[in-house]
Amino acid sequence: MTHGDLVKRAGRWLRNTLHCGVVFEEMVSIIPEIPDAIGWVGGKSIVVECKTSTSDFRAGLKKWHRSHGSEAALGMWRFYLSPPGVIPHTEVPGGWGLYEVHGRSVVFVAGTKYANAKRTPFASNISQERTMMLTALRKAQINNKMRSHHD
């Protein structure tokens, strides 16, 4: 399973299983963090980081927004998604959850399990999430203008 396959799977999982109304996959904006997938449901944000190797997982732990307090990063809920056995269960950071792709299923394995009625484990960087959404709206607006000029 490639990283791209996992990112698409994360997007579908956020939309179909966790019922996120808005989902971005590898959304690039002016903010420093580019989550593999992020979605929003009931005003709460959920970030999914996809890992295909243990070394990639460990390198991600050293990123600035991961090491400077939970408010520096995106996501009120934060999860890893990987093929089975990639991420050691004992290395999942506090508050994070680990889900694995088993065939057609996404299965909870370790850490914090998602529960939409439960208090979120993190305070997200709301300002950066807002910037990401505004970037998406700007892109959509530009695309609509371009389409209307061609009609």
Describe the protein in words.
This protein has 151 residues and is an alpha/beta fold. It has one domain (3-150). Helices cover 34% and strands 23% of the residues. The chain has helices spanning 3-17, 54-60, 64-67, 126-150; strands spanning 22-25, 37-41, 44-50, 77-82, 97-102, 105-111. It has a six-stranded mixed sheet, covered by helices on one side. The longest helix is centred in the last third of the chain and has 25 residues, at 126-150. The protein is globular. The mean pLDDT is 88.
- Strand portion, in percent? 15-25%
Q: What count of domains describes the coordinates?
A: 1
Number of helices: 4
Class by alpha and beta content: alpha/beta
Outline the biggest β-sheet.
6 strands, mixed
Q: What level of helicity do the residues show?
A: 25-40%
Q: Mean pLDDT, rounded to whole units?
A: 88
Distance between the amino and carboxyl termini: 41 Å
* Strand order in space, largest sheet: 1-2-3-4-5-6
Could you give the topology of this structure?
Layout: H1 3-17, E1 22-25, E2 37-41, E3 44-50, H2 54-60, H3 64-67, E4 77-82, E5 97-102, E6 105-111, H4 126-150
Parallel strand pairs: 3-4, 4-5
Antiparallel strand pairs: 1-2, 2-3, 5-6
